[in-house]
Amino acid sequence: MALLELKNISKIYGDLKALDNVSIKVDKGEWVAIMGPSGSGKSTMMNIIGCMDKPSMGEVLLDGVDISKESQKKLTDIRRDKIGLIFQQFHMVTYLTAVENVMVSQYYHSMPDEEEALEALGRVGLRERAKHLPSQLSGGEQQRVCVARALINHPELILADEPTGNLDEANENIVLDLFRQLHNEGTTLIVVTHDPEVAEAAQRTIVLEHGRVAREVINENFGK
Amino acid sequence: MLFKMIRGVLFHQRGKMLLIAFTIALGASLATGMLNVMWDVGDKVNQELKTYGANIIVKPKDSSLLADIYDVGEGEQLSVSYLNEEDLPKLKTIFWAFNIVDFTPFLEADVTLPDGTSARAVGTWFHHHLSLPTGEELDAGVKSMRSWWDLTEGEWLDESAENSESSVMAGVLLAEQEGWKAGDEVVLSGPKAEKTVTICGIFDAGGDEDMQIFAPLDLVQELTGREGKVAQIEVSALTTPDNELAKRAAKNPSALSSRDYETWYCTAYVSAICYQIQEAIPNAAASAVRQVAESEGAILDKTQLLMILITALSLIGAALGISNLVTASVMERAKEIGLLKAIGARDRSITGVILVEILVTALLGGVAGYFMGFGFAQLIGRSVFGSAIEMKVKVIPIVAVLVALVTLAGSLPAIRMVLRLRPAEVLHGGQ
Fold this sequence. Notes:
The structure holds 2 protein chains of 2 kinds. Chain A is α/β, with parallel strands linked by helices. Chain A has helices at 42-49, 72-82, 98-109, 114-123, 139-151, 169-184, 196-200, and strands at residues 2-13, 16-27, 31-35, 57-62, 65-66, 83-86, 157-161, 188-192, 204-209, 212-218. In chain A, strand 1 (2-13) and strand 2 form a beta hairpin. The interface between A and B is medium-sized, with 34 and 27 residues.
């Protein structure tokens, strides 16, 4: 059953078509990678899937509901309740500790619960670093805090934009292992990347070129 | 969580927040100082102007009417009727009793001097102690109402001293003409009696009074046979500058609507005080000494306008400063704000957090500014008026509201920026 379906979506900035009549479908529990060169429309697609932007044309169905015409307020609510976001640049609140950064997500979702936030940090192997500020954490640790923050509210969809783009190989593997765990638990993952190794970790890869879906590749080695 | 976020920002951006607090403190200090001075300057200027004489003259009704008809100047007595001395304390029973700061009665008589020449004797109070029915104690008289007189010889007549009823003060020109010195005894012949008096002091008033004798009121009443009577009363009152309502009321109070009448009656306009004096003292006609009243009004209006302008300019300056600083702070935190939006924070939550941060900063700056303003007002009071400025309690809520409004107004551009900020625009891209 499809969790997310983009139907003929286009995003047009003046004369530029960032996305041109794109249609994709992502099933519940599926792990999909979106690849493509710079300017292919990856970030635009992520913004639309992440409810941070609206398409100029087409429909975005999330859980069967078209959200392409929703208000900003409603999109914020959908993003808060259903989507966990992970960014390339980590993006943490610099004056809050690791556990507080996770709790911020709880605060805007429901109620901050420090024990639950510590458990989430424990899951990414950072419980003992919970009281550290972002400036006291390495890049890999910061990204793992962001993963903990993304999964704390048990979202239906985790959307990651170049999650390993700023990480060394060791930390890249840690993050990919976390994604595997999440996938095994049934979480739907969409990972935007330009790294073929990260894309190969997914079940399926959608390749974008010039704002269009150039091809889709099923990863035969997935799970092996 | 909210507390942690606000505390985090306040400490993390403490340099910027201190600058915002300092800007607010400057605006608040100027507003506090100026408002306190503005409200106290009325009393201060009034007190200064009171040293230049009375601003209300009270006469018997018929003599006032004759004076109006025949345009008779001061000192020329056409009066055939008098006010009762026993009614004078009633001046301190009117609605604006506390604004009556001084008053003194006058009764004039032409007396014959030993050399056969004639002179004008003015009976009055010098430093007369009154115990009012209200329980208030008051010292009134010419000593305080003619503060510009120079005593060239002797001393002021002391009404509490023995033989004060047979002491007088002489104008410097008359004393020169008659060859009098302080301590000399002189026989004054009035229409009804003759009295031997001692000249206790000689004064230089720089006017007609220099050719007159100033004597205790009782003495002149005895010389003229008008015991218990006074011809006129000079009153020094703290007044509010006239406005259009006061001018209309001065012409005819009964033409006012009941609401206007109440407003006028309950404001210390000189015309309202005159009206109330007439109500309190039977057969009295009170009129304002226009030059004094109008000078007071003009000086107060201009001073207060200047204060309001300085306050407004300082607050506008503070708002601009706050606007720049808060906008810079928000721009610096654009990624953080974008992140909060991305993880589900609504605009109003983020705006609320930013406003609370700014208002906490404003509170600190406002309190510091209030106390700075307190010192600022005292500096102005001491250097301009030579006395302390009384701190008005009403300034506190006004400054609090002004600080809040200026802070909110200054934060508006930053809030607009927050509302327009789209997470997609700040969270993607290079580092």
